[in-house]
Amino acid sequence: MSEPDDPLPEGTLISHLLELRTRLLKAFIAVLIAFLPCAYYANQIFDFLSTPLVAKLPPGQKLIATTVTATFTAPLKLAFVAGLLIAMPYVLFQIWAFVAPGLYRREKRFAVPLLLSAILLFYLGVAFSYFLVFPMVFRFFIATTPHNVMLMADISNYLKFALTLFVAFGVAFETPVAVVLLVLTNLVPLPKLRAMRGYVLIIVFVIAAILTPPDVLSQTAMAVPMYLLYEGGILFAALMTRSSAAAEDAAQGSA
Predict the structure, then answer these.
(1) CA dist 22 to 25, 94, 95, Å?
(2) 3 state DSSP class of 154
(3) At what angle do helices 216-254 and 155-172 cross, to 10 degrees?
(4) Cα–Cα dist 58/61, whole Å
(5) Residue 165 in 3-state DSSP?
(6) Model confidence pLDDT, tens digit, residues 94-126
(7) What is the Cα–Cα distance from 131 to 154, expressed in whole angstroms?
(8) Cα torsion angle, 90, 94, 97, 99, sign
(9) Three-state secondary-structure class, residue 130
């Protein structure tokens, strides 16, 4: 019986799995290292997170805990999220190091700036929601509270609300990266994206209505930046397309 002509795929698969395990282990260790100091200062981090709401509450009112364990678990969950955010650049670097060998030179040239832009835009979305959206939303909710109702926010529910908005705005701010990828991968041509502006405006308001609390202020606060970022993505996609075309023309000219 003859031996198989190509026994390499199995060995290649095993080497890739080992490489993936190594990268994931390094990413996990980075998150753990970032988590430990955050866990030590978990209460202070939670105080910082709750400041936009506490600042809008009537004098003397604070957040409450409706379960005995919430005073421990809620700050600890927040500490893990903070550690993950701190370690995220290194985690994404490990993912990039695993994927990069399989990319072409042109794809690598665009992947690095897109990856860095995605990280910065996500952090910008989180900061936008905390410093601008939170005060506006909490002011609206507290102002509309009936006079015979005392607003008592539970720390676990508040943490869930805050993290939901962080993720929603962080993902929403990735709109330029998504637009550029659609153009560079030739999935959607640039002229078609320009022609879809009216539909996109409707879509972003629908997305904002799904991802944000049911009030007009927070929906508008997400929809307007998303649309502006869409326009910015079209602009950057046009610039990158021209740059790529110029580079290809120069390469053909030199050949």
Answers:
(1) 5, 9, 11
(2) strand
(3) 30
(4) 6
(5) helix
(6) 988 888 777 677 667 778 888 888 899 999 999
(7) 21
(8) negative
(9) helix
Give the tokens for residue 148.
């015979």
Report the greatest alpha carbon distance in the chain: 87
Q: Which residues have C-beta within 8 Å of that of residue 33, sequence separation ≥ 6?
A: 87
Q: Domain segments of the chain: what residues?
A: 10-107+133-166
Which residues pair with residue 154 across a beta bridge? 64
Instruction: Quote the CA–CA distance of 133 and 113 in Å, as a whole number.
Output: 28
Angle at Cα 89 formed by Cα 109 and Cα 28, nearest 5°? 125
pLDDT at 254 over 70: no
Query: Both tokens of residue 15?
Result: 């080497």
Sign of the C-alpha dihedral computed for residues 51, 56, 58 and 62 taken in this order: negative
Residues 6+ away with beta carbon under 8 Å from 134: 52, 53, 162, 165
The letter for the amino acid at 191 is P
Instruction: Please provide the DSSP assignment of 65-109 as one string.
Output: -SSSTHHHHHHHHHHHHHHHHHHHHHHHHHHHHHHGGGS-HHHHH
Full-model pTM: 0.82
Chain centroid offset of residue 195 CA: 27
DSSP state of 59: T
